[in-house]
Amino acid sequence: MPKTKFRPCIDLHNGQVKQIVPSEKPSYYANLYKQYNLTGAHVIKLGHGNDEAAKECLAAWPGGLQIGGGITLENAEEWLNASAEKIIVTSYLFPDAKFSLSRLQDLSAKIGKEKIVVDISCRKKNNKWIIAMNKWQTLTDMEVNEESLELLSNYCSEFLIHAADVEGLCQGIDSELVEYLGKWITIPTTYAGGANSIEDLEMVNQLSNGKIDLTFGSALDIFGGTKVKFQDCILWNQQI
User: Fold this and answer.
1) Measuring CA to CA, which of 12, 73, 81, 174 is 20 to 30 A from 67?
2) What's this model's pTM, rounded to 2 decimal places?
3) In 34-43, which positions are buried (b, 16+ CB within 10 angstroms) versus exposed (e)?
């Protein structure tokens, strides 16, 4: 029986870690995650001016971190050569907010599906979850469901799911989405959005039958939050 794991993140904005004031160096977090062997951590470049900070993180833990933000067919190999474990791709797959299967197929053919994580940021509309882009303001033509996830999983090795409606609010996860994802997914998947308590790890574990991992962001004490202790997350993973 699988069990939900804690998966950490590093969100970069203007070359610094987004959640922190004052900021630790981004590579501090990469070293911290390496120290505890927190595999599958994702580094997300939010906008421009983050390449140098991202490469510092990757250099701190070669082969240990995934990288996302502005990844395309043209630059994916550059980031893998900079020691990323995998690349995370989002908006590149949705030119003009329309899903391009050929772009995903081309990327998979070039670097291999095992090196690709598809980031699915979604918003709920009319009781459906729709993939969103452009800072989650633009809805695409793709619904998140069993069929779409099965299609995407032919060309990637992981999903990173951002529940955009609750992301950053620290007001609880989208439990309905997590439960559906637990039924739909067939490859490793990490959920991010709204987690605000160490108990959310057990909730996601139960809702998804242990198939979905969980990321904490601004609620985490290492990012200045007060709701979740990093060491408690480490203890959880050690019990798996």
Assistant:
1) 174
2) 0.96
3) beeebbbbbb
SS3 195: coil
Residue-level pLDDT at 20: 64
Question: Other CB atoms closer than 10 Å to residue 86's CB: what's the count?
Answer: 25
- In sequence order, the β-bridge partners of residue 88 are 68, 117
Tokens 């490793």 belong to 188
Amino acid letter, 16:
Q
Answer yes or no: are the C-beta atoms of 40 and 68 closer than 8 Å: no
Q: Which residue shows structure tokens 């529940």?
A: 163
Total residues belonging to the chain: 240
End-to-end Cα, the chain, rounded Å: 10
What are 34's two structure tokens?
């390496």
The continuous run of DSSP H or E covering 35 comes out as helix 26-35
**Type of residue numbered 121:** S
Strand partners, 13: 16
User: What residues have CB less than 8 Å from 200, skipping those under 6 apart?
Assistant: 172, 173, 214, 216
d(CA 118, CA 197): 26
| % of residues, the chain, pLDDT over 70 | 96
Tokens in use for 101?
């299967």
Render pLDDT for 66-75 as a digit per residue (tens, 0 to 9): 999 999 999 9
DSSP-derived pairing of the beta strands 116-125 and 212-215: unpaired
Q: Is residue 136 a contact partner of residue 90, using CB atoms and an 8 Å limit?
A: no
pLDDT in tens, 213-236: 999 988 999 999 999 999 999 999
CA pair distance 58, 237, nearest whole angstrom: 23
3-state secondary structure of 206: helix
What DSSP character marks residue 132? Answer: E
